[in-house]
User: Fold this.
Amino acid sequence: MTEQPPHDPNQPYGPPAAHPYQQPYQGQPYAAQYPSPGQQRPPSKALAITALVMALLGFLVITWIAAVVLAIVVLVQSRGGRKNGKGMAISALLVCALWVVGLIIVIVAVVNSQPERDSSGHVVKGGHVLTGSIRTGDCLKKDPSTSAQLTVELVPCSEPHRQEAFANFDLPGGDFPGQPEVDQQAEQGCVAKFATYVGVRQDESELRIFFLRPSKDSWSVDKGVTCMVSDGTATTGSFKGAKR
Assistant:
């Protein structure tokens, strides 16, 4: 049993007063020390990397647009001193700008170097055209380096050339069926049209068939196939009706 001092009648009953040196805790609440789900987080490097990769591979307009959008998202998130991924986002925008400048240069070059044609459409003076503008009967000075090549140089068929276009046609519409199927349809179409131009069936000819066809990236805007024939050398004259 503990002895208690007598109660002072001048003091009210109740809990003891706080110590004069005790102060309520003034720190930031625990929950406020961490960002809530709705608060802005630092930009992700993944977005910046994706934007840069798409910019570097941006040979299609849709890829440029996606790269620019992602880069802008990263830059917007980088406000307030956050620089995570900002450098790569800026690089992606610069690469896209270079692609656009390069495309403009190509278009200007093509426009300024169009071949001259006679009244029947035959090339009488060489020049460059977009691959999608090759006509039946056109002769190509060089073999196209890749299926993604933007332009080719045409020359009169009386001058040395590597290939001659003998047909143009479009593949059926719908979803992209896969590159092997596109290649098969393009080859079958060119084989079927070969005899009409050359004069003999392809399996009886000494000449070889080449073709330009759409890819998965270009399918939404271009389903055209250009069929070309060659004997593997820089030849002169046309293969039309040659029966070789």
